[in-house]
Design a protein that fits this description.
The chain has 265 residues and is of the alpha/beta class. It contains eleven helices and 15 strands. The strands form four sheets. Strands 6-5-4-9-12-14-15 form a seven-stranded parallel sheet, sandwiched between helices. The protein has a three-stranded antiparallel sheet with strand order 1-3-2. α2 crosses α3. It is globular, with a radius of gyration of 20 Å. The chain starts with a helix and ends with a helix.
């Protein structure tokens, strides 16, 4: 196992167990305790863990993202629910933008039942995922590649995004706050998302319920920059009031059934 693979695996353990012990990791990976300490030191320098006596805990307040291959295996059920809702909103032949979030990878997979889509993305993972869609037009934004997020970012990426006009931009984020709006953990990623929203007729935010009430490092957009929000369950009344005030349609599982029951009454 390569060092980077071992460190990613340690992060996965931390996600599940909240704490790891040096001696136990040494036995599990068949390496010296000194090697494990170096791994934890690297993860601490990256802002992802906090070393403790004999081990480490996850840094819950880190402004940095977990590696992409870990994030894409989190909240799978929620991401699939939201992806299914998005499928019903995209029509054959449309042009859409997808950001480099793990949520949008699930959306790209779900959209494969559609015909002749044009997809513009800065996600390396989505580009690879859509290689087997010959009738689609899949356009890479180009830009500087990032190992941790599998994203293409930077000024070239943003200029490329701005040169297109699409039917829908579908982005995710790290936090939604009634006061701070939509936020993300990385400035370059946030800027690419902002450019996507500015290039689309319909501007859709996809965020699971754990993101509500959270504030991340940097601003992506105001509420007024969105036309729709897709989430995995019905938000509370205060959120729905905010969305209604800003003319944002909020879509969640069971909403259609709710509407039909209201009509019957």
């Amino acid at each position: 196992m390569l060092a980077i693979e071992r460190r990613n695996d340690i992060l996965e353990r931390l996600q599940k167990e909240k704490r790891v012990v040096v001696s136990e990791l040494s036995q599990a990976y068949q390496v010296s305790e000194e090697t494990i300490r170096r791994d934890l030191e690297k993860l601490e320098n990256d802002g992802l863990v906090i070393k403790s006596y004999g081990g480490a805990v996850l840094n819950e307040h880190s402004i940095f993202d977990l590696p992409f291959n870990i994030r894409k295996n989190q909240k799978i059920v929620e991401k699939q629910k939201m992806a299914d809702l998005i499928v019903g909103m995209v029509r054959d032949g449309e042009a859409i933008m997808l950001d480099a979030s793990s949520t949008d990878v699930y959306i790209a997979k779900a959209l494969k039942e559609k015909k002749k889509l044009t997809v513009i993305t800065n996600s390396v993972e989505i580009i690879v995922e859509l290689f087997d869609m010959p009738e689609w037009s899949v356009i890479s934004t180009g830009g500087v590649s990032r190992e941790k997020s599998f994203a293409l970012v930077g000024p070239h990426t943003d200029r490329m995004i701005q040169s297109y006009h699409v039917d829908k931009a579908i982005i995710s984020c790290k936090g939604l706050s009634l006061e701070a709006g939509i936020t993300d953990s990385d400035e370059q990623d946030a800027n690419s998302k902002k450019m996507m929203l500015g290039s689309a007729k319909e501007r859709i935010l996809v965020a699971d319920s754990s993101k509500f009430g959270e504030i991340a490092f940097t601003k992506v957009a105001e509420w007024t920059d969105l036309t729709k929000i897709v989430t995995d369950r019905k938000p509370g009344g205060q959120w729905l009031q905010e969305f209604e005030k800003n003319r944002i349609e909020c879509i969640y599982p069971g909403k259609e059934k709710e509407s039909k029951e209201k009509e019957k009454k």
